[in-house]
Design goal:
By secondary structure, this protein is α+β, with helices and mostly antiparallel strands. The protein contains 10 helices and 7 strands. The chain starts with 11 loop residues before the first helix and ends in a 9-residue tail after the last strand.
Length: 273
């Protein structure tokens, strides 16, 4: 189908859709306005409301923009590179890292004109980014699965390593805290995981909150606090001591804020492996 001169008012993916005859100009404008009003990406709006199938958009866009088209259902999600791109960027841009080759990171996108995603990820990872075109519905499902697997890793660590730690309490724990084995492997791995997850999620602060019978850890992201772990309260002192060591603080210093909580930034401690 030959594009009319009036098509020039459209740009990017919408222009491609009109050119390929998938929508009329009038319908394209109406759907574009509706997507903006609902603050939904155009591709998501078109696919979710069944105006055009995700496969149709992807195949036409791949041809039009000369990009490789990939079926996400054929990839093993467990081999996707984790820790390279933060959850915040993945959700913001609907962009999923697929694989890394040298200094190049290949990103799954359903919109071939989403250049801002490539630029932002390139800036944060210091890697050259390239687009792999995928279907919108499969991309959304893959992102949810990928991030869910990352979120459960903290729980898995709690269920395995920390359950095997021998706990002592009362005066004996207080007397032996400074001389205790704060390099205990499960504690080291757990604290490292907290820091790495905080950086990956783009958290600005980590809150360690020991109470009389509970101990919780929360991340602050975009001004909001969310609980990420609740280790046994008996090991609160050992976790905090480990963080003090990593921060080159005096582990014998027992003063804590009046509310009993400790706050730190994820970059104030360097994971030690």
């Amino acid at each position: 189908m030959v594009a009319n001169s009036s098509d020039m008012q459209f740009s990017g993916l919408l222009k491609c859709i009109i050119k390929e005859g998938l929508l009329t100009e009038a319908d394209a404008q109406a759907h574009s306005d509706a997507a903006k009003k609902s603050k939904t990406p155009l591709i998501s709006y078109l696919v979710n409301d069944k105006h055009i199938s995700a496969t149709t958009i992807a195949t036409h866009a791949a041809t039009e923009f000369g990009l490789p088209f990939f079926d996400l259902s054929a990839v093993d999600k467990s081999i996707l590179p984790s820790g390279l791109v933060s959850e915040k960027l993945i959700r913001k841009h609907r962009a999923l890292p697929l694989f890394k080759r040298g200094n190049r990171l290949f990103i799954a996108l359903s919109d071939p004109t989403n250049f801002q995603a490539l630029d932002d990820i390139k800036f944060h990872t210091r890697l050259n980014t390239e687009t792999i075109l995928v279907e919108e519905d499969k991309l959304v499902a893959a992102i949810d699965s990928f991030l869910e697997a990352a979120d459960t890793s903290m729980t898995d660590l709690l269920d395995t390593d920390l359950d095997n730690i021998e706990l002592s309490g009362g005066d004996e724990e207080a007397k032996d805290e400074v001389n205790s084995d704060i390099d205990d492997a499960p504690i080291v791995r757990f604290v490292n995981k907290i820091l790495l997850d905080a950086i990956k999620k783009g958290a600005s602060d980590i809150h360690l909150e020991p109470y009389e019978k509970t101990f919780r850890i929360r991340f602050r992201s975009d001004g909001m606090l969310s609980e990420v772990a609740s280790p046994p309260s008996n090991i609160a002192n050992r976790i905090i001591s480990r963080i003090k060591v990593m921060s080159k603080m005096d582990i014998a210093e027992r003063r804590v804020p009046q509310d009993g909580r400790i706050k730190m930034t994820p970059k104030s401690c360097k994971p030690l492996f």
